[in-house]
Amino acid sequence: IFAGYVPLQRMASLYAHAAVFVFSSLLEACPNTLIEAMGCGAAIVASDTEPNREVAGSAVIWCDGREPGDMARAMLETVRNRAINAKLRAAASERSKRFSWERSADELVKALERAHSDYLGPARFHDSVPDRELEFHT
Question: What DSSP line would sit under 45-85, residue for residue?
């Protein structure tokens, strides 16, 4: 089904209720749409590219995005085999947890702490910082 424009509020429902989500792009450096579909528990067929593999791991069925027959085979396998479909949905949902905002923020803080430590030593408070609340005058 080609739905045309879909408001953002309806996207999660479409991902979750699709028999299969097909991600055929060969050019994505950071496939956010793939992450969104995984987060909604979609059964996914995707083009076998390095960025897609890094994001989805084993949570999708891989196919050659340049070969329509290979993509059709993967789509049919996903739609016809309920066990595979259910397994893909669970795997996608689980894999998507790697891309939560909380985890991203935690990883960023850790990277900044490592960078600070590597260049300036462990973080420490400066001696001139008072141990009391500051007073602000307006």
Answer: EEE--HHHHHHHTTSSEEE-TT-HHHHHHHHHHHHH-HHHH
